[in-house]
Every structure is written in C-alpha cells, then in structure tokens.
Design goal:
Shape: globular
CATH topology: Rossmann fold
Helix content: 40-55%
Bound molecules: adenosine-5'-triphosphate, magnesium ion
Largest sheet: 8 strands, mixed
Strand content: 15-25%
CATH superfamily: P-loop containing nucleotide triphosphate hydrolases
Oligomer: single chain
Distance between the termini: 9 Å
Number of strands: 8
Number of domains: 1
Order of helices and strands: EHEHHEEHHEHEHEHEHHHH
Length: 247
C-alpha cells in the first residue's frame, strides 16, 4: 500500500481538483483506492457526492481502527472509497496534540488499512502544522501543485526549508506545475524557472482550464465530464508519471 498526499502550504493551487482526478484514474486502473479528505472545507467530499454525518468524523483518525472503518464510505465508482471530512476536521491538530506520539497518528491509522487498499490519496489543507507533520510522516510521496507565480515559489521554498530543518526526506517531495496558462509570458517564464530552481518537478503540467472549474457543477472527475479535453489528457499523463514513481 502506498500513500500519496496532495499537499501544499499554499491555498487554492489545485490540490483538491488533482486529488479527485488522480483518485478516479487510480481506481480505474484497478487499484483499490481510498481518498482521505483531511480538509474541513470538505471539497473532495462534495465532489464525490458523499454526505458525511455531521459530527465526530474526525475522530476516526485519532482512535483505533474500528472508528475509521465506520467513517469510510463507498463512492459511485468501482474500487474507490472515501473517508469524508466535515467541519470537525478543523480540530484535528488539537486532537492529535493531546495524543501520544502526535506526529505519527495518521501513519498508524493508515498502516492498519494495508490489507484493504493499494493506494491512499490524501487531500490536505494548506497549512504547515501538526496535521501536516502527520502527513509528511505518513506519505510515500508528497505531490505539490505549483502555480506559476512569484508567491508560489516563495511558499514552496518555505516548505523545502521546513523539511530540511526537521529532517524530513525531501526526496519524497515531487511538484508539478498547476493552472498554467501558456498564453501568458509570465507563466511560461516562471514555469521554466521553477523547474530549474526545485528538484523533483514532474514533466506534466496541468493547464488552466474551464473544464476543471466546472467540476463544481458536474461533481465528477474531468475524465467523465470532459474526456476529450486537454485537462483530462493532462491528468491522465500526470497519473502515469506518478504511477511510475510511486507504485
Ligand atoms: N487546472 C485548473 N484550471 C482552472 N481552474 C482550476 C484548476 N485547478 C483548480 N481550479 C479551480 O481553482 C480553485 C481552487 O482549486 P482547488 O480547490 O483544487 O485548490 P486547493 O489547493 O485544494 O485549495 P484549498 O487550499 O482551498 O484547499 C477551484 O475553484 C478550482 O475549480
Ligand atoms: Mg482543497
């Protein structure tokens, strides 16, 4: 079993959109896949049309295995389950901080799911905090969407610095360019410079696309709502690249 985390310490960069699309593609290839929505905004949960019970969902992540079993839901798709998020997830940090070994709680919970799943994909909230450290310890690969802006470069530097300072393995951090508009000179320039400045930037980039924006309306991966689109093609290519590195 592998754990893939869509993580960035910057908000609104495409973590959730990528989680939904890659999870669908992974499940389609036959991998038993669990998407774990760790963000109290619960956007991934919304995209998969799952309605969580409105309390105590977060508890499954801080307690013994049975608790998480009760929270996991099926989705409309074969091989794809979801651990939904709700508003209680905003307290996960606090809940972990009160437990023993507070940076390894997620790792422990996911280890217990070894027999059921081939892949766990985490949609993460945009903070560097105790939950993030749980994610860094649990993930085999951290996949970071980088949007071609100056601020995005700054935020990614902060993450790499944090990783080095705390002794996390930077080699498990991969990034990809997200929301790229090739018509903009600045996007083209920054795309190239981000590739040279950071290690582990994948070849695939996800274009800025209204088909991705419309996922909120369709509540489906673009593979289903816009199969022929450049966005769907880009996500297929991204999944191929991630698959080769991770599985
Ligand atoms: N490739 C894309 N092209 C156009 N719009 C996109 C693309 N990817 C994501 N978006 C849109 O940008 C917004 C933010 O995307 P998303 O929710 O995936 O980001 P996020 O990193 O998960 O944000 P947050 O940090 O708030 O969880 C959404 O409205 C989404 O529809
Ligand atoms: Mg999100």
């Amino acid at each position: 079993m592998k754990v893939l985390a869509l993580y960035s310490n910057k908000g609104g960069v495409g973590k959730t959109a990528t989680t939904v699309n890659l999870a669908y593609l992974a499940a389609q290839t036959g991998l038993q896949t669990l998407v774990c929505d760790l963000d109290a905004q619960s956007s991934t949960t919304f995209y998969f049309r799952v309605k969580p019970k409105l309390k105590k969902e977060a508890r499954g992540l801080a307690k013994k295995k049975r608790a998480i079993d009760n929270s996991i839901k099926g989705t409309d798709y074969d091989n794809l389950d979801l651990l939904p998020a709700d508003f209680s997830h905003r307290n996960l940090d606090l809940v972990f901080s009160r437990l023993k070994n507070p940076t390894h709680r997620l790792h422990k919970v996911f280890n217990q799911l070894q027999d059921e799943y081939d892949l766990i994909i985490l949609d993460c909230p945009p903070y560097i905090n105790l939950l993030a450290e749980n994610i860094f310890n649990a993930a085999d690969m951290l996949l970071v969407p980088l949007i071609p802006t100056v601020l995005s470069e700054r935020t990614h530097k902060q993450l790499i610095t944090f990783f080095s300072k705390k002794g996390y393995d930077t080699a498990k951090t991969n990034a990809f360019l997200s929301m790229v508009d090739r018509r903009k000179t600045l996007h083209r320039t920054l795309t190239e410079s981000l590739r040279t400045k950071f290690d582990g930037v994948l070849d695939t980039f996800i274009p800025y696309s209204s088909d991705v924006e419309k996922m909120g309306l369709h509540r489906e991966p673009v593979e289903l709502s816009a199969t022929q689109s450049t966005a769907a093609k880009a996500y297929r290519q991204l999944w191929d690249e991630v698959y080769l590195k991770l599985i």
